[in-house]
Write a structure and sequence with these properties.
The complex is a heterodimer of chains A (412) and B (66). With 412 residues, chain A is α+β, with helices and mostly antiparallel strands. Chain A has helices spanning 3-16, 27-30, 53-66, 72-80, 139-163, 168-177, 187-203, 208-219, 226-238, 300-303, 318-321, 325-335, 362-368, 397-411; strands at residues 19-26, 38-41, 85-88, 107-113, 119-123, 166-167, 249-255, 258-263, 271-274, 279-282, 295-296, 339-348, 354-360, 374-379, 387-393. Chain A has 2 domains: 20-230, Enterococcus faecalis V583 domain (Enterococcus faecalis V583 fold), CATH 3.90.1710.10; 243-411, Alpha-Beta Complex (v583 fold). The termini of chain A are close together. Chain B has a domain at 17-61. Classes of the chains: A alpha+beta (412), B alpha+beta (66). The A-B interface holds A 1, 3, 247, 363, 366-369, 401, 404-405, 407-408, 411-412 and B 43, 45-47, 49, 52, 55-56, 58-59, 62-65.
Chain lengths: 412, 66
Amino acid sequence: MDVEQANKKALQSIQSAQPVLVGIDTAKNVVPGMTDNLLLHAGPPIGWDTMSGPLRGAVLGALLYQGLARDEKQARELAVSGEIQYSPWHEHSGVGPMAGVSSARMPVWIIENKTKGNRTYCTLNEGLGKVLRYGAYSTEVIDRLKWMEETLAPVLSEALKLRGEINLKAMIAQALQMGDEVHNRNRAGTSLLFRELAPCVIETHFPDKDKRKVLEFIHSNDHFFLNLSMPAAKAILQSAEWTEGSSLVTTMARNGTEFGIRVAGLKDRWFTGPAQYIKGLFFPGYSEKDANPDIGDSAITETCGLGGFSMASAPAIVKFVGGTVQDALNFTQKMYEITETESDSFQIPSLDFRGSPTGINIIKVCELGILPQINTGIAHREAGIGQIGAGLVNPPMKCFEDALEAFAEKYF
Amino acid sequence: MAERRPPISGLFDQPIQVINVGVPSFSDDLKRQGVPVRHVDWRPPAGGNKRIQALLRRIKNGEKTS
């Protein structure tokens, strides 16, 4: 097996991908394999017994929102009854931030890679505070999700039809020039999206009060763009799946209990290890003892050379995740050692417009002992409290070592 | 009879410039003493893990085992 050639082929797919926002629809209508009794979640496969607090909370909230349970007690009974199936978003062409729990009724963004035609999906970002993705399931959380389904999604869907498709690769590239790394800093990306959508939202047929609320909702949430940068990154990496003989990583994801990776040349297989605790800055009143282990599909950004891999683009982020501006530069520089090439599209101004580190190679990770650098939010270990900080984390080396062993077994 | 000095002794008769490979604290100690030192960030392949080293060799050599 010529691994170098296989990796070149996978990289060609990654570099040529063109993720474009094409619309919004209900998950059940568009997400492959979605059914009424299926809940999708972040990270590798997991059952109720081993789910962490925030993921359990999000499951309960999704069952209430979906109308499958009347109250918390019934939701808890249903969650363990065997009637509800759980499956990773990644196995359904999508991604979910933090707990990432989605049910059939939820509206999702639809992203299409125009080069290969593959489509990916992600829910719309709920904002900060008490939100489902951190495991909150109180009435205000469910009411917001219903407003998103009944107002936000229809307004944005019509606005998108008026606007036409939006090239997310170009938007992410522009956001990097404006100080985002599109994982934990999405202020520029959200502003760019708002600029594109706002005139078309005004033109929709909806009442002015709904249009105003939709625009205020986007304006008030700097992370609104995260739920587009993630499925865009997923669309790019999915295009390299499953390239026979390639040792490049196409998925890094966490469910709050385990960290899992998938590799282009090892079709459908997860390689997992324990999710790590995040080192970073905590919001006032919280400390490391309150933290849940690493959770969420947002590491798809790092897998695509964004997020922690592009921290040099986002010096302001160190005020949020900790460290110094020099650390941010160093993290990006180090990631070039475990990646195969530099992005043709995503450039880093502070490194003289060098392309972001692209194509994590499990062989290099294992040989050099350098782990991918992820920056991420910290969830409270109990359901419903929400984000308590942000910081830096690495995957467990075990994921890469197990993948290397499987790769050697399959090809050599 | 004149004392015979090993050739390496000459090294210490001149200003020392050091390349430190591996453990950074050796380099840090020298820096604190004002000795010019260049640190090379090196680790043994796979951190010395023999099982992983064997897998890497197998892949790099393209050995097909069956």
